[in-house]
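Example record

The entry below shows one chain as it appears in the dataset: sequence first, then structure tokens.
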Amino acid sequence: MRTAIFKQEWRESWANKRLIWIPIALMLLASMQPLTLYFLPDILASGGNLPDGAVIDIPTPTPEEVLISVSEQLRQIGLLVVLLSAMHTFSHERTNGTLAWLKSLQIPTSRIVISKWAHYALLTVGGILLAQTAAAYYTIILFDSFDWLDFLISTTLLICHFIVQLSIFFFIAAILESGVVAVVLTLGLHFIISLVIGWIDLDWMPWMLGPLSSQVLLTEVNLIWPLVTGLLVVIVSLFLASKRLRFMSDST
């Protein structure tokens, strides 16, 4: 009974093919970057309408630069893919009465929230690991090898970044009627705080986990405080989501 909701999430994930298309989408996003960078001169030459004799000289990016572009792609479009996949987690279940039914069974709210969050967190971790593996493969094949320890640290930070944003989304989705609005607010909050960090030296904030996943490939960075504050944001977000979860839709 304790893991029934968690198992049901995986069954639904398989039924609607979310278990398949999320990892594939993230892998495609990650694979496109090294392929695009490698064939970019040919793409420009074939479609640039250049005069005869013109030569396109684009410096070959280093493996680290390729992996940084992959990280940026996943942090932007990849995060959107993950949040959109979770968009109807609470809103749809309020509308069809599933949440109210779970409440009538006297299931603790924390179990509902954490079970659903854990499902998406594990799905996201698996997708990112596959995406980063694909990116590493094409980077080595098309460009050169790189420092594997830095790459593993970068991947870990990228996963932490996704988990923090997913946790914030779960809190917002738990208290709002619309999943779409929850996605927009999560991305908007991420964008605004990222801008603030750019203006003010706030290297300790969890929103630095994303940029640090790129920076660690080039230089040494301080990881302790962003990881600590990121863990606090996850715990607080899930706690508040459990306390403030709305079970009924206003339209019912």
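Notes for this example: The two ends are 28 Å apart (CA to CA). The mean pLDDT is 88.
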